[in-house]
Design a protein that fits this description.
- This is AAA family ATPase.
- By secondary structure, the chain is of the alpha/beta class.
- It is built from 13 helices and 8 strands.
- It folds into 2 domains: about 240 residues, Rossmann fold (3-Layer(aba) Sandwich); about 50 residues, no CATH class.
- The chain has an 8-stranded mixed beta sheet with strand order 3-4-2-5-1-6-7-8, with helices on both faces.
- A hairpin with a 5-residue loop joins β3 and β4.
- α6 packs across α8, α7 packs parallel to α9 and α10 crosses α12.
- The chain is elongated.
- The model has no long low-confidence stretch (mean pLDDT about 85).
């Protein structure tokens, strides 16, 4: 079994969050594959009911059960679980009250909605509780069932409250099973075995949400992880050329000469094409400069960062394995 050192040795629960549109679920899936590499067993969990894991791995909708969905590079298995709050509620009732059958009847009557109305954070406690149980679970041989658990968590704006909801519920229920359950979840989520990773793009809004989210985590006493910069585009031209282009100093006459020499266009057509190319070049240069500035802004986070490439053909299974390899190469798994 692979025993390579990583930036997150000792971490067993990897929570992945990010602003919508940053590729949060894709990065969570790639991280699970990377962690499983070399013969490990990893559970990938989703809690928002979107069946995002099934879509990424090109599978039918996942049921509420842990099942193997992928084989990792160099051996190792990725299992997946789409948490259903009602099923988690039934497990909870069975675990603490021995009333699964009665609980099934109660769920039909809307008891879950009733319970979450009385204690608004109870639904989140149920889904984080299921994840925490998987982190703690041991087999008959006494060994951990999973080497790591990756949680595809809610977006950045909700992540701190989602993970810290056990505090609120514990305040409502100071004794009894709910209190005990909340304490168990909190014991995992706030331990050194957990890291909350952020997925961002090199754009102003997701970068700012990442910095705000990290600040919120620290204030709540939750363990910040790394920053995954997704969909990174490599500059197409040398920096001196980009510096000129961003200032509007593109020599269109030189472009015209190049187009004519290559036999691509002549005369007025070459001039029109050169002007269009100059504008495209200036736009590329401006975007590259913005991305450079946002990358520098992220240094304020003082967290390990990992850059994942923009895949020209989109994220299919082959692309997912490519991202997993990039994560491993950079020492994140």
């Amino acid at each position: 079994m692979d025993s390579r050192d990583t930036d997150w040795d000792g971490v067993r629960l990897h929570v992945v969050t990010g602003k919508g549109g940053t590729g949060k679920t894709t990065v969570a899936a790639a991280l699970a594959l990377a962690l499983a590499s070399g013969g490990h067993k990893v559970l990938l969990v989703e809690v928002e009911g979107r069946q995002g894991i099934a879509q990424i791995f090109d599978l039918p909708p996942l049921p509420y059960e842990e099942r193997r969905i992928a084989v990792a590079p160099d051996g190792g298995d990725v299992y997946a679980l789409a948490v259903d709050p009602e099923e988690a509620m039934l497990e909870y009732l069975e675990m603490f009250y021995g009333m699964r059958r009665a609980g099934r009847a109660l769920t039909k009557m809307g008891v879950l909605d009733f319970a979450t109305t009385i204690a608004p954070g109870f639904r989140d406690v149920l889904v984080t509780g299921k994840t925490s149980e998987a982190v703690r679970r041991r087999g008959k041989d006494g060994k951990r069932v999973y080497d790591a658990v990756v949680l595809d968590a809610p977006p950045t704006g909700r992540i701190t409250r989602f993970l810290n909801v056990t505090e609120e519920v514990a305040d409502l229920a100071r004794v009894g099973p709910i209190k005990n359950h909340s304490d168990l979840v909190r014991g995992v989520v706030k331990s050194p075995e957990t890291a909350v990773h952020f997925v961002t793009l090199l754009e102003e809004m997701p970068v700012q949400e990442t910095l705000d989210g990290l600040a919120d985590l620290r204030a709540a006493g939750l363990p910040p992880g790394g920053v995954f910069i997704n969909m990174v585009r490599e500059p197409l031209l040398p920096q001196p050329v980009l510096d000129k282009a961003v200032k509007g100093r593109v020599d269109t006459a030189e472009l015209v000469a190049g187009l004519e020499a290559a036999g691509l266009a002549t005369g007025g057509d070459a001039k029109a094409l050169a002007e269009a190319l100059a504008e495209e070049l200036a736009e590329h240069a401006r975007r590259t400069e913005i991305e450079r500035d946002e990358r520098e802004t992220l240094t304020a986070a003082e967290r390990p960062s990992y850059e994942l490439p923009l895949l020209a053909d989109g994220v299919d299974l082959a692309g997912l394995y490519e991202l997993a390899e990039s994560i491993r190469t950079q020492g994140a798994a």
